[in-house]
Amino acid sequence: MGSQWTKDSVYRKAMKAGYRARAAYKLLEIQQKSGFIRPDDNVVDLGAAPGSWLQVIRDLTGGKVIGVDLNPIVPMEGVTTITGDFTDPLIQERIREEAGGIVNVVVSDAAPKLSGQKSYDQARAVGLGEDALAFACTILKPGGNLVIKSFQGELFADLLAEVRKHFYSVRGYRTKASRKGSAEVYIIAKNFKGTCNGTEGPL
């Protein structure tokens, strides 16, 4: 990509503030709009590298903050980082242990490597969202919150409908910090029902 994409005003602002990526401002905006992270929440960040969301989360809560990614995350004070696939049951068990068995919030800014083929990229992004939802269903305590990134397109409505089965309050939201012309959209889901596929989730 050309420099006009990587070094726009939001990027420069993020670098000046010491954030690892411009995405920090997306999370700050979502938090300002919805207040989904509370001061004592334990939070798990999926697809967390390079760690800008972890930086924001660490300032929002005094609870446990855990970042998971296939790629190593440069360590930061007050944050537990795990290298691995969050769909792996062994990784999920380690996350539970690190969180002391209680997870209040799950966030995911994970996105597939883009191919440039809109429908293919959107399908893969929705697939990642489905994986993040399945993870949240198995680990969130009732009343917990979820934020996941997806892409607008014909499959987005299906993902939104699926999230609504598990949370009492669900909305789609586009951040001002997203790049101009971007199809990305966030799903903000609050108040987990405590059920997963019709059965009781973790209590």
Automatic annotation (TrEMBL):
It is found in: Cytoplasm. It catalyses: uridine(2552) in 23S rRNA + S-adenosyl-L-methionine = 2'-O-methyluridine(2552) in 23S rRNA + S-adenosyl-L-homocysteine + H(+). Pfam families: FtsJ. The active site is at 149 (proton acceptor). One of its GO terms (cellular component) is cytoplasm. The keyword S-adenosyl-L-methionine applies. SUPFAM superfamilies: S-adenosyl-L-methionine-dependent methyltransferases. InterPro entries: RNA_methyltr_RlmE, RNA_MeTrfase_FtsJ_dom, rRNA-MeTfrase_E, SAM-dependent_MTases_sf. One of its GO terms (molecular function) is rRNA (uridine-2'-O-)-methyltransferase activity. Keywords: Cytoplasm, Methyltransferase, rRNA processing, S-adenosyl-L-methionine, Transferase. Its EC number is 2.1.1.166. The keyword Magnesium does not apply. Residues 19-192 form the Ribosomal RNA methyltransferase FtsJ domain. Gene3D superfamilies: Vaccinia Virus protein VP39 (3.40.50.150). S-adenosyl-L-methionine binds at residues 51, 53, 69, 85, 109. Belongs to the class I-like SAM-binding methyltransferase superfamily. RNA methyltransferase RlmE family. Specifically methylates the uridine in position 2552 of 23S rRNA at the 2'-O position of the ribose in the fully assembled 50S ribosomal subunit. This is Ribosomal RNA large subunit methyltransferase E. It comes from Methanoculleus bourgensis (strain ATCC 43281 / DSM 3045 / OCM 15 / MS2) (Methanogenium bourgense).
